[in-house]
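Lab notes, practical 5.
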Amino acid sequence: MEITTEMIKQLRAATNAPMLDCRNALQEADGDYQKAVDWLREKGMATAAKRADRDASNGVVEMYSHGGGRVGVMVEVNCETDFVARAEQFRNLAHEIALQIAASAPKYITANEIPAAELEHEAEIARVRAREEGKPDNVLTKIVEGRVEKFKDEVCLMRQAYIRDEALTIEKLVLQNVAAIGESVIVRRFQRWELGESTNQ
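Output from the prediction step:
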C-alpha cells in the first residue's frame, strides 16, 4: 500500500513521533493506522513531550449512573492530546474517578477550593467538640488542626482514599497514570446528583 504524506502527517499529529518513525510505522503496518500507532507505542516513540506549558484541553466528559439511576455523576478529565484522550488507559482513569465521586461524594477537587469560612466553621465545631470531651487547652490547637485535615480528606476528591485501594489517594492514582501515559492529566470539574437531594446545597 502506498504511504502518503497525509497519512504520515495524521500519525505524527496523533503520536508526536518524528516523521521518519511515522513513515516506518505505516510501512510496517502496511498502511493500517491503528497498527502503526501500536507499533510506535511498542517502540516507545509515542511518548508526548513533557513540557510544563502544554495545554491540557483534550480529554473526556465521563458520565456515570449508579444504583439504578439514584446517583448520577459527570466529570471532565483533561489531557494534552486527542491521542491520549482516546486511549483505553485514560478512559479507564476517567471512569474510576467518576465511580469515586459517586461512592464518596466529594464537594471539591482540591483543598484550595474550600472557602475559608467553611474551614473556620469546621475548626469551631472541632474546638467545641474537643472541649466537651474534656481535652486540655494545651493540645486543643493540635486536635482542631487534625480534625480539619480529616475534614479535607473527606470532602476533597484528590485527598480521598481510592475506593478500590485505600492505600492510594486519588491524587496518587492520577500521578501513577500521568507517569504511565506521559502526559499531564487534570480533573477539571465535576457534578454529582443524588435523587431527592436539595438543589440549594
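Observations recorded by the TA: Residues 66 and 192 are 11 Å apart (CA to CA). The chain has eight helices and five strands.
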